[in-house]
Amino acid sequence: MIKTEQEYKRTKKMVEEERSAIEKQKKNLKDKGFSDEEVHNLLAPGIAIHEQKAGEVLQYERIKKGDFNGVEYSLGKMLIAIRIYRGMSQAELARRLKVSPAQVSMDERNEYYGISVQRNKDAFPTLTIT
């Protein structure tokens, strides 16, 4: 799951470059006499990885528009998706939570594994990473 705008831009550029490279590889292999089936078999692993990255780019773009279809239903991933939809950076979230940006980055990298909801003395829900 892409978690930051910077990661999105980097991955989107990579997907575009890979798409072009795959087409060149296909043409090169066909020019060398490989059959369509052989070309497919040779390039299948790289194409699968490329398609996964392309899917992550599309998912990030959908989340930014408020479309949460396809987001794996885990609390951690939904929290990340909501932050992205709200247009909030990890740094902004850290500021609002009064924690370091490194803490938010680490929590999101781990997809908020072990998160729980607790109520403080004022009966407001607070998130606690355990």
Automatic annotation (TrEMBL):
All copies of domain HTH cro/C1-type, residue ranges: 79-113
Family annotation (CDD domains): HTH_XRE
Entry annotated with the keyword Coiled coil: yes
SUPFAM superfamilies registered for this protein in UniProt: lambda repressor-like DNA-binding domains
Keyword terms, alphabetized: Coiled coil
Domain of life from the UniProt record: Bacteria
The keyword Transferase belongs to this UniProt entry's keyword annotation: no
Residue ranges of coiled coil: 1-32
Name recorded for this polypeptide: Ribosome-binding protein aMBF1 (Putative translation factor)
